[in-house]
Inverse folding.
């Protein structure tokens, strides 16, 4: 099944120094269970999952811990058996270093399992809708790092049937090798996952894109495809260039189709999934297993024994790194994800999440302090290297000057995929991509503020309206009362005067009479 | 020559009538400039600008009676937006009207609240819930942080707390502001 496909070259890109060999030589090892697992409720794009277990509850492996909350969300299952000891805020791997709600599971070491779902080894006889529902219930999200719920993606776009499934095995980050090892060792699972995707989408073809720096993986996947004797698969070796693993870039390399910022690849009839996701889909469907583990690359010059680990979700990076032989003495920095698109962590007491494809520990020699940025000299290197043909130097001015509207409307800020190439090639060491992230979140913040201000205006105006209405109603009521009183006055008022006068007259008469009697008495007395 | 004069006179007359008609037919109700200004204001209705609410301040700016730097809740961003809209130079926030503070929401200590309803009457956006002799509480999502409820409270049980933003609303800081602090973290590239 050698491919005779014409490949395309996207603009820009970068050949970062390769560090794959450090971690891809040893087979995937299965991590031992730690004492505790910390499972963040939000390990995916969309709404955080809603816990369905209580503190103190005993759970089995594969048991549902938190259900999906809404359409774009994903449930979380127990990676082992044990007791839920807390549902509380813990620090999660996030660039903010903030805390978020997590389920803390105390492992009992028995690893007693339950069958979460009915296994469907003959998935071709199952209705696509049921398969998609299974993928949703199993909590499967994009394991390449984007963690977008796979079932939502598999629904495709309204009006555009999927004709081709893209399995993404590019793995273009220079240090990460979890997909590489997975393809070498579990190629059949990946391709069977691909068959499920083909069946669900009703597609005719499945392209597997793998960068040519992984010849063993390419060979393994090709031989697995031969064993399956499935003509729909085409395994394509693509040139090694960062960021060929970004979905739209991969599609362009394989087919030459350009996808604009506003649309998704599903709108062009393609369904893209990472190879790790495909394997997880296979396990969920054929074996009835929810997503509770993933392959994590531990690598970098700061570790004593780099390699790939099949780790339960929720295991702390510190526990996993300790199992892998710990740090070198001169470790200086720990990065979540790759060096291009990842972010630095302030601690290793952070759990492995569905997004955790790599923990990269760099020694002091490999991670020098960032040189101080110098002024932009408008050399244009960033623009040449930008894979989406932006003008990063122009966007930099926009972001610095707070010209967010121009950045958004004129300079297409939101087309930026944050690959980090611009910052990597900048001779002035300007952290360009950080400026773009800042500008994006500033624009989102302003949109939220605007929305809130609109709501406040509405409430304020309604309150004024209500106060005005109350005032008018009160005035109308008073006026009505006054009118009523005025109408009653002539009759009632007259009678009252008469009564009073009569009473006064009577009293005067009584007084006169008494006086008279008193005088009489006096007279008699004298 | 007379033809030319006649033609131009008639033309002027016709166009004048057309313009006059258009002026009547497409008359814009209200003050569009004040609307635009109002849209840029943060709608806290706090009155720190010296006007009873954002709308009156917007109208005063539109009439040229107020300066653009009197809105502390909007701060620098609002001043800049107003300067852009009105085509004037931005200027620093006027100190007599207050200082720019981080976003806050009011919080009522329900143990201390006596249920007097004075804060409810003071709230410009109806964000306080309660009834006479019953405990009051602030609807945090609706509170604009204007602080107008603080002064009327006879038992001083209202506090301003900083807004706790959820993780989804976390904001990347500007590299300009943190270059000296530390290495800046990053988020994963989307590669599903």
């Amino acid at each position: 099944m050698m491919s005779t496909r014409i490949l395309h070259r996207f603009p820009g890109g970068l050949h970062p120094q390769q560090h794959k060999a450090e971690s891809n030589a040893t087979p995937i090892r299965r991590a031992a269970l730690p004492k505790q697992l910390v499972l963040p409720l939000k390990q995916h794009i969309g709404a955080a999952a809603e816990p369905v277990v209580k503190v103190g509850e005993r759970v089995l492996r594969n048991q549902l811990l938190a259900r999906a909350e809404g359409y774009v969300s994903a449930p979380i299952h127990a990676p082992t058996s044990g007791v839920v000891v807390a549902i509380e805020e813990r620090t999660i791997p996030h660039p903010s270093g903030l805390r978020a709600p997590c389920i803390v599971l105390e492992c009992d070491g028995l690893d007693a399992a339950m069958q979460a779902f009915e296994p469907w080894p003959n998935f071709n006889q199952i209705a696509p809708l049921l398969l998609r529902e299974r993928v949703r219930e199993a909590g499967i999200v994009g394991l390449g790092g984007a963690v977008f719920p796979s079932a939502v993606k598999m629904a495709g776009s309204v009006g555009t049937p999927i004709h081709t499934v893209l399995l993404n095995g590019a793995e273009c980050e220079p240090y990460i090798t979890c997909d590489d090892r997975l393809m070498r060792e579990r190629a059949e699972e990946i391709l069977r996952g691909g068959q499920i995707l083909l069946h669900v989408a009703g597609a005719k073809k499945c392209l597997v894109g793998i960068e040519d720096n992984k010849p063993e993986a390419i060979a393994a996947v090709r031989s697995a495809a031969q064993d399956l004797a499935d003509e729909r698969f085409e395994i394509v070796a693509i040139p090694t260039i960062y960021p060929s693993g970004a979905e739209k870039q991969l599609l362009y390399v394989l087919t030459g189709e350009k996808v604009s910022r506003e649309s998704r690849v599903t709108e062009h009839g393609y369904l893209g999934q990472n190879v790790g996701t495909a394997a997880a889909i296979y396990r969920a469907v054929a074996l009835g297993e929810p997503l509770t583990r993933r392959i994590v690359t531990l690598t970098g010059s700061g570790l004593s024994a780099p390699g790939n680990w099949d780790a339960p979700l929720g295991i702390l990076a510190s526990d996993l790194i300790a199992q892998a032989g710990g740090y070198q003495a001169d470790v200086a920095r720990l990065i979540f994800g790759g060096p291009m698109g990842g972010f630095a962590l302030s601690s290793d007491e952070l759990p492995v999440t569905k997004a955790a494809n790599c923990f990269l520990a760099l020694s002091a020699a490999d991670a020098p302090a960032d040189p101080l940025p110098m002024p932009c000299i408008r050399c244009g290197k960033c623009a040449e290297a930008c894979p989406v043909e932006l003008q990063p130097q122009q966007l930099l001015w926009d972001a610095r000057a707070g010209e967010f509207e121009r950045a958004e409307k004129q300079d297409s800020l939101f087309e930026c995929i944050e690959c980090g190439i611009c910052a990597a090639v900048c001779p002035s060491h300007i952290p360009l991509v950080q400026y773009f992230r800042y500008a994006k979140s500033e624009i989102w913040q302003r949109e939220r503020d605007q929305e809130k201000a609109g709501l406040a205006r509405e409430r304020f105006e309604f309150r004024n309206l209500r106060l005005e209405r109350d005032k008018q109603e009160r005035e109308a009521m008073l006026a009505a009362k006054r009118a009523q009183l005025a109408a009653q006055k002539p009759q009632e008022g007259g009678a009252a005067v008469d009564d009073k006068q009569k009473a006064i007259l009577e009293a005067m008469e009584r007084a006169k009479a008494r006086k008279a009697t008193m005088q009489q008495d006096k007279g008699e007395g004298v | 020559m007379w033809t030319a004069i006649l033609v131009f006179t008639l033309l002027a007359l016709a166009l004048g009538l057309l313009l006059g008609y258009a002026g009547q037919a497409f008359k814009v109700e209200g003050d569009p400039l004040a609307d635009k200004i109002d849209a840029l204001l943060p709608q806290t209705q706090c009155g720190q600008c010296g006007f009873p609410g954002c709308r009156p301040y917007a109208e005063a700016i539109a009439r040229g009676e107020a300066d653009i730097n009197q809105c502390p809740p909007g701060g620098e961003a609002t001043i800049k937006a107003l300067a852009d809209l009105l085509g004037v130079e931005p200027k620093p926030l006027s100190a007599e009207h207050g200082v720019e503070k981080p976003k806050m929401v009011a919080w009522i200590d329900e143990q201390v609240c006596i249920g007097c309803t004075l804060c409810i009457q003071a709230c410009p956006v109806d964000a306080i819930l309660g009834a006479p002799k019953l405990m009051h509480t602030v609807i945090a999502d609706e509170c604009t942080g204007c602080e107008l409820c603080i002064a009327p409270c006879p038992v001083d049980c209202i506090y301003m707390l900083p807004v706790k933003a959820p993780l989804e609303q976390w904001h990347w800081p500007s590299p300009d502001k943190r270059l000296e602090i530390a290495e800046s973290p990053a988020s994963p590239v989307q590669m599903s």
